[in-house]
Amino acid sequence: MKQDSRDRMLESIVRNKSFAEIGGLWGGEQERLSVAHEFGARELTMIDILPPVNQWWHVFEDRMKQKGIEGYQTLSGDIMTMPCGPYDITHSSGVMYHLPNPVQYLSALRAITNEYCVMTSASIPRRIENKYGLLELDGGKVLFVPGMSEEQKWIFTEFYVGDNESFTDDDGMFIGFRNMGQDGFATTNYVPWWWLLPGEAIVSMARAAGWEVVEISENWGGKAHTILLKNNGRVDTATMG
Q: N or C: which end of the chain has fewer CB atoms below 10 A?
């Protein structure tokens, strides 16, 4: 079986390093703290915005116990506002497109990372055409979900969801567009998808935040990109917002 690109990247950089995962709780089984432990990280920290009483913290703790992993640290909060780190290596998967300001998030990641970050984001091809119509996102174009038309949403739903009804609401629309929580598209709500981002846009955002892009890997049939990022210097705090 082909090794997950996230794990391959972590294996090459994490031994004897301090490691923090940001946003790894949801779903219970996608965390990479245990992977970093397996590859020899010397310190482990899980950071997530979910409050300590949330069930996913308990699921995570049970998972660590089952794997015999002890001595890790946990932090509940938002890295864009909460002091933490720095850590030699960081990992973030499935976060940036849930945020109203993904470049600010990438800058915050850089501020807490001494060396490398393995960052994965859902992505969208530059061209999607199906029975609902055509989406073209070349030349730096991205889609801001609160401003998308119904046609655009259906085109993406057909591409991303296919026959997997667990990703849809009662109307068949992709749940990420409508699972908005009580605040809707408020800037404090990190539940919905705020952005549909081509891989090229994700890379450009990382560079704008001051990262060196070392490696780019397209995953899950063009539905995600994993990027190995290197921090080559001090973060300019004026870019942090």
A: N
